[in-house]
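Following up on my earlier thread - several people asked me to post the actual chain instead of describing it. Fair enough. Here it is, all 298 residues.
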Amino acid sequence: MTTVHAASSDRPVVTGEVLPRGRSTSLVDLANRAEWIRLETIRLIDQAGFGHYSSTFSAAEIFSVLYYHTLRLKPSDPQWEDRDRFLLGKGHIAVGLWPIFADLGFFPKEWLDTYGSIDSPITDHPNMVTAPGIDFSSGSLGHNLSVAVGIALAGRVHEKDYRTFVVTGDGELQEGQVWEAAMAGGHYGLSNLVAIVDANGFSGGGATSKTMNIEPLADRFASFGWRVEEINGSDVATLVETFDRIPADGTQPTCVIARTHKGAGVTLMEEAPQAWHMGWLKGEDRAQAEREINARIR
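Reply from S.P.:
Thanks for posting it. Predicted structure:
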């Protein structure tokens, strides 16, 4: 079994083997990984001179648990046909994926040094053509749940046991196409499909409750025939427990409504979530954010 080291991009996971679904990783390690994702996000955005901090920070624990515990992967072969699929609906937080992908061995760590360059294979949105490990590109919001339905259906047709996970933002759920996909997922009984809603309460246009209310989310997904769990999306123990008990088979897709905070883990962003939807941490603001994050790493 592969050993995952806590919060260190200098000690990669062994890449020549399959990383099994539900592999053993300590809760402390997973929490540290989430903080490392935040630190790496700050570093990469500083290098690029732009980026989405607060939307990435709200999903840091979700990314950590998915990639260091839940997903079945083979980093040495990103197109391995039996891998679990992952689609990022809120594509503007791809900056939080790149350190993970480099750490796991999807691509060389040197690629991180190119982030922010116009010819870099890794950009502020995921590109399946240039970045190994990306199962579908995203830029315009709202498409990835629809694509995930198609991938899950293909898995059924080809009698594969992979699962298809998709992370959406709650602002993204204001797109009508998302609800067509939710209807289709329930209609086809896609038990191999898992939607994770990073419900941080805000989008680029402001508070989701004010721009276009999407609540009550649990009732809405349940009405389309989904199995629904509503959890604290910033607690790694809860995420592990929730992802571990997703049924291996059945007749319903699963929706995990992960309640988070935009800018989670950095006080100045939590207090002004909209102001930090996109920006550039500099000077004392950056130093303060890094101190706060580092203080939680054990």
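Strands lie at 85-88, 164-169, 193-199, 202-203, 206-207, 227-232, 254-259. That should answer part of your original question.
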